[in-house]
């Protein structure tokens, strides 16, 4: 029996005019429902198998889990689901990145045509290879200081040009543009398109980053993607991309949009935004808020200035109302009279001191004259000097023939000694 020989599933009645898939022709085709039922019946005969892989997606909905399992040596993947009854029997800490083995049985949904595997048992094998590599790289980059907040650059208050790296015609691009333009209509973008998953993600993102970082007009660069499962976000944890972002001169904003298992790009970027919409709000200020802030500041400045002017006017009026300023002449007259009295007293004191000094000078002059040898000479006396200017005090010091100089009141004369004269001669 081939895959097309089955007709309907259990409990289903095929239409009376339904053509079996093996009997279908261009003139008498089979129905989609009968084809899907045939496939389901064929798949239902497959046995349960144990498969090894790494969990790359883990979504819980209404108690059931819808996930994906990736081959550990290639990119091959399968879709799996755990019903709530099975989930209660598997380890509660299962999640993305876990390396597991699972008992799966193929299942095909007739209504939607989806093919997946139902899990009946699952257990840990070890940390997934990809998660393990990412964790080692995360530790290495942290030790090198690439996650240090001190090295991260501040975003400009109002960027003139925003560089945007995202997928072409993606929702992320629309979200960033729409929300940024709503906040600041004059904002300008320079958009570089790059693959946001797969083998082309890293090289194209690196090339776009290099072009935008070299543009002097670009003030900030946003790398945006609208979320995804960890498997599709692996490119944003690539070491080459992470190091290029750390070395960029322009501030970088990461807007990958995956909260649970964020890529390494989020850690090394200068700012991490939860979504592309959040990135637009954090990169561009809101023009309405800024206008309101300016109006508030102007109101505060006007109020303070008015208050200061009112205070100064009141203080000036208070000063002007004082008697001394209203009519200063009496104060000036009183000070003028006081100044005249002080000046008169000063003159009298100085004159008295001058008179006292004059009298004292006259007294000293008289005393000096009385004691001066010149006064004695004026009375007729004379002074005899020996050679060398020695005053002759003893006649014995001037024997006969000694040269003498006789000083009188008016001048001096030369003389010669005739010797000592006896007393009474």
Element pattern in H and E: HEEEHEEHEHEHEHEHEHHHHHEEE
CA radius of gyration is: 59 Å
Major beta sheet summary: 5 strands, mixed, barrel
Number of strands: 13
The helicity comes to: 25-40%
Overall 3D geometry? elongated
Mean pLDDT figure: 85
What class do helices, strands and sheet pairing give?
Answer: alpha/beta
Q: Can you tell me the residue ranges where pLDDT is under 50 for at least 5 consecutive residues?
A: 1-13
Strand content: 15-25%
User: How are the strands of the largest sheet arranged?
Assistant: 1-2-3-5-4
| First and last CA, distance | 196 Å
Summarize the structure in words.
- This protein is α/β, with parallel strands linked by helices and 425 residues long.
- 40% of the residues lie in helices and 21% in strands.
- The protein is built from twelve helices and 13 strands.
- It has helices at residues 32-44, 84-87, 129-143, 171-183, 201-214, 239-247, 264-268, 276-283, 287-320, 323-326, 329-371, 373-378, and strands at residues 49-61, 64-70, 77-82, 98-108, 115-127, 161-166, 188-193, 218-224, 252-255, 271-272, 383-385, 403-408, 411-416.
- A hairpin with a 2-residue loop joins strand 1 and strand 2.
- Helix 4 packs parallel to helix 8 (276-283) and helix 5 (201-214) packs parallel to helix 6.
- The N and C termini lie far apart (196 Å).
- The model is unreliable at 1-13 (pLDDT under 50).
């Amino acid at each position: 029996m081939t895959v097309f020989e089955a007709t309907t599933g259990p409990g289903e009645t095929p239409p009376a005019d339904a053509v079996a898939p093996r009997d279908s022709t261009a003139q008498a085709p089979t129905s989609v429902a009968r084809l899907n039922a045939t496939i389901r019946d064929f798949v239902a005969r497959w046995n349960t198998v144990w498969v090894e892989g790494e969990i790359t997606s883990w979504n819980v909905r209404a108690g059931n889990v819808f996930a994906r399992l990736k081959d550990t040596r290639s990119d091959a993947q399968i879709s799996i689901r755990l019903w709530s009854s099975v989930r209660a029997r598997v380890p509660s800490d299962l999640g993305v990145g876990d390396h597991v083995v699972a008992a799966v049985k193929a299942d095909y949904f007739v209504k939607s045509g989806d093919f997946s595997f139902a899990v009946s048992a699952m257990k840990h094998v070890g940390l997934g290879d990809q998660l393990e590599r990412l964790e080692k790289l995360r530790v290495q980059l942290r030790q090198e200081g690439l996650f240090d907040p001190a090295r991260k650059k501040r975003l400009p208050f109002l960027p003139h040009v925003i560089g945007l790296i995202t997928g072409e015609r993606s929702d992320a691009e629309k979200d960033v543009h729409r929300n940024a333009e709503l906040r600041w209509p004059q904002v300008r973008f320079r958009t570089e398109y790059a693959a946001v998953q797969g083998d082309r993600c890293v090289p194209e993102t690196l090339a776009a980053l290099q072009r935008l970082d070299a543009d002097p007009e670009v003030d900030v660069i946003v790398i945006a993607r609208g979320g995804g499962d960890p498997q599709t976000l692996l490119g944003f944890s690539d070491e080459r991309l992470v190091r290029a972002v750390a070395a960029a001169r322009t501030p970088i904003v990461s807007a990958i949009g995956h909260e649970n298992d964020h890529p390494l790009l989020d850690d090394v970027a200068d700012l991490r935004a939860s979504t592309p919409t959040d990135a637009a709000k954090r990169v561009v200020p809101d023009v309405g808020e800024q206008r309101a802030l300016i109006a508030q500041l102007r109101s505060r400045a006007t109020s303070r200035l008015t208050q200061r002017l009112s205070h100064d006017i009141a203080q000036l009026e208070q000063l002007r109302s004082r008697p001394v300023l209203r009519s200063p002449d009496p104060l000036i007259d009183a000070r003028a009279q006081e100044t005249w009295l002080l000046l008169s007293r000063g003159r009298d004191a100085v004159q008295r001191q001058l008179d006292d000094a004059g009298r004292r000078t006259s007294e000293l002059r008289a005393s000096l004259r009385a004691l001066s040898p010149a006064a004695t000479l004026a009375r007729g006396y004379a002074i005899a000097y020996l050679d060398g200017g020695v005053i002759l005090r003893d006649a014995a010091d001037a024997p006969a023939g000694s040269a003498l100089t006789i000083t009188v009141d008016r001048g001096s004369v030369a003389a010669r000694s005739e010797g000592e004269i006896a007393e009474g001669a």
